[in-house]
Amino acid sequence: MAANTVTKQTLTYLLGICVPSFKRNATKIRITRMDFDNHLLTYFTKYEFVYAVDPEKRCKIGDTVLIQNLPEKLTRIITHKIVDVVFPVGDIVDPVSGKTIVAGKYRETIQEDAKLYGELESMYKYDKATPRGSMENKRDFSNRKIYVKYDKDLHNSDPCAVNPR
Taking the CA of residue 13 as centre, how many other CA atoms within 13 Å lie in the half-sphere pointing to its CB? Predict the structure, then answer.
């Protein structure tokens, strides 16, 4: 008599940041983990890199994304899939208050401080900024194809080149 075995698989959701990758059908995600050192009794930051499938090409380099492990590996290295883009680059929102954040401060408090102490000409105007994607191929090169650059040419720095190390 054959027993029916039920295998239970847990789906793990992780937050990560998209980093440059030269794989064509996958996106490289950097996951931050805290590793505990028993000798020093403290945590240290460790980075783990996984490849996730992104069929709709929703995420760009620098986006914070939510990924989920696949029930079966798609290939030898692709083990996850992208569920959602949580924060596009530069648009981080506090989940409690719903206000936008810049470097640990609310944008509203930055503007209030500027009114109190005087605005600078070099201050970035968030309300007059163009939406994301309007600077593609001018200053935003995240839509270009990434390639591996093996030489160290200091005069020609290409933002689409990835160091193989």
Answer: 6
Which of the pair, 27 or 131, is modelled with greater confidence? Answer: 27
- Are 77 and 26 in contact by the 8 Å Cβ rule? The answer is yes
Tell whether pTM > 0.70: no
The Cα 96–Cα 119 span in angstroms is 29
Q: How many angstroms separate the CA atoms of 46 and 146, rounded? A: 25
pLDDT tens digits, one per residue of 50-68: 999 988 888 888 889 999 9
Question: What is the rounded CA–CA span in Å between residue 77 and residue 118?
Answer: 53
Nearest residue to 25 via CA among 71, 82, 66 = 82
